[in-house]
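Reading a protein record of the kind used here takes only a little practice. Think of the row as the fold of the chain written in a discrete alphabet. With that in mind, consider the following protein and its fold in token form:
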Amino acid sequence: MEAATVSKEIDAAATAAGFTKDPSIGTVGPEVKECKVDWVVDDPGKSADPKKSFADTIAGLVEAGWTEGKSERKGYANVKIVTKGDWEVRGAADLDKGIKAVVFAGTNTSSECLPILIADLGNSKKH
């Protein structure tokens, strides 16, 4: 599955759930564009019920053939993982008091992409 397909499936599930994408955030560099997808929600607090919209986005991905994996709490964020083929999407939602944030980050875990993603991670630590 291509990154563009993953992005379209996240977009379809998230917009059906009431979220809109923030066009200014979430672009990945050209060196990782086939291995990584970021979809950042624009002002999740303006959704009528952002927690429900987050749950509905995950449910929409499951309806599109994604397999729901583990859920966990990381700091202030609730994280839910779905997988399909070599792709893993982590949905993270910090919807408590204060700043609200929701991000869906997809990574291709194939043997072709892992070295690219590791190199990208190393490059981002240098900046």
In short: Residues 86 and 109 are 5 Å apart (CA to CA).
